[in-house]
Amino acid sequence: MDFTKCRRVRGEINIPGDKSISHRAVMFGALAEGTTEVSHFLKSADCLSTISCFRKMGIEIENGGGILRIQGKGLHGLTAPQGILNAGNSGTTTRLISGILAGQPFTSRLTGDASVCRRPMDRIITPLTEMGAAIYSDQGNGCAPLTLHGRPLKGIHYHSPVASAQVKSCVLLAGLYADTPVSVTEPALSRNHTELMLTSFGASVTSKGNTATILPDPSLTGQRVDVPGDISSAAFFIAAALLVPGSELLIRHVGVNPTRDGFLRVIEAMGGSVGKLNVSTQAGEPTADLLIRSSSLHGTVIEGAMIPTLIDEIPILAVLAAYAEGKTVIRDAAELKVKESNRLDIMVRSLAAMGADITGTEDGMVIRGGNPLHGAVIDSHLDHRIAMAFAIAALAADGITAVVQAECVDISYPGFYDDLQKVTEP
Ligand code: S3P
Q: Which atom of ligand 1 is nearest to the CA of 335?
């Protein structure tokens, strides 16, 4: 798909629902007693993979009138899946569901697409095994496909070597089926949607610093969940409006949970203008309307505890840094190598192909911004965030940027290109 420079970004836009929150609403709804009703659910390929896995375990899920309804069967109501569970491209589905499967009284098998089957699962196999689970990588390479023989689980205090909400959530979910409380301490705080949403469903979850603790065997009750717009999707439109001169864009009802809003803090540090309007909070999740005006940006340093709060926004931050004046350093971001693709490597190579002065490092990149960028052929590597990042990079570059396999945006944002067309003036 081809993209070119645009004159201005104008108007108002509603961003699709948050991916992390949508996955969790299905999972926790399935484990609760009664009906869970989800509005603004993200109907993207990843979240549909989660739905398909729970349907295979006997959960009725239907979609009508813009509301997703999950008929929960309680903590002990799942049935042995008919056939292998398929998480598609979704690391969140694979890792979170493994925590649930580890404590079931049945055996299940779990796989995904080629990307998921390359991603490290030893990071969940290790703590689940410590809890007494029988979870095996079928190929013995620490990756999916996985076989899980459900077992009674033991409580542990797990010190995770990585700041990962997927690992933390996996262990906390296994904790629902443990004999004693389960704690997870991570090196920096990752997104806390699991802690917030499980609490609203009736679980006892406490958080202190970088440690979350869950008590076993709660009784969960179905809830109404209103999913805020996904800040990770909004980030592409925020970047577009910042980059293209003369732009002004209003994005409504975006989730601005402080464990997710590092992108906004970095934009501010780079001199970007993003106003927050109508701030409100539901079930612990803050939301706001965001008003973005084009701004001249300058370089910054992105590192440390901030990284987990903007982990999915690093590709689009690298694009912004390439257009910003001066040097941007991104470090402590080695996790990016094990996302849907090796995002460090691909961002460095692809921005360089557009003329950016960019060097990859062990755990990040150094970008000397301000060079004019030109169009290039960019392979998305079937990574939705790479495709979207370069569709935006093209809006301020000379010539044509051709994104190969651009349709992979359906993983997190079906309708991305239509929305982009609506707010950009050619
Ligand atoms: C997610 C956590 C993050 C993020 C992913 C969604 C989640 O992964 O990159 O897109 O919903 O928990 P890690 O926690 O493994 O960094």
A: 16
**Element holding 128 (H helix, E strand):** helix 122-130
Close Cβ partners of 114 (under 8 Å, ≥ 6 residues apart): none
Q: What is the mean pLDDT of residues 405-416?
A: 98
Cβ–Cβ under 8 Å, residues 351 and 375: no
Instruction: Name 311's Cβ contacts closer than 8 Å, sequence gap at least 6.
Output: 333, 335, 336
- Give bridge partners of residue 12 from the DSSP assignment: 250
Ligand 1 pocket check for 92: Cβ under 6 Å: yes
Q: What is the pLDDT of residues 64-75, one digit of tens each?
A: 899 999 999 999
H or E element: which one contains 236? helix 231-243
- 219 contacts 244 by C-beta, under 8 angstroms: no
pTM: predicted TM-score of the whole model, two decimal places: 0.98
Strand order in the sheet with 134-137: 85-86, 107-111, 146-149, 134-137
| Cβ 46 vs Cβ 93: under 8 Å | yes
Q: How would you label 187-225 residue by residue, b for 16+ Cβ within 10 Å and e otherwise?
A: bbbbbbbbbbbbbbbebebeeeebbbbbbbebebebbeb
Q: Which of 230, 312, 379, 383 is catalytic?
A: 312
Structure tokens at 60: 């009725």
166 lines ligand 1 (CB under 6 A): yes
Percentage of the chain exceeding pLDDT 70: 100
289 a catalytic residue: no
pLDDT in tens, 285-317: 999 999 999 999 999 999 999 999 999 999 999
* Residue type at 259 in one-letter notation: T
Edge-to-edge strands, sheet with 67-73 = 60-64, 67-73, 33-39, 224-226
Buried b (16+ CB within 10 A) or exposed e, 148-168: bebbebebbebebebbbbbbb
As beta bridge partners, residue 61 has: 70
What is the separation of C-alpha 333 from the centre of its chain, rounded to a whole number of angstroms? 15
Q: For residue 82, what pLDDT band results from cuts at 50, 70 and 90?
A: confident
Predicted confidence (pLDDT) per residue in 185-240, tens digit: 999 999 999 999 999 999 999 999 999 999 999 999 999 999 999 999 999 999 99
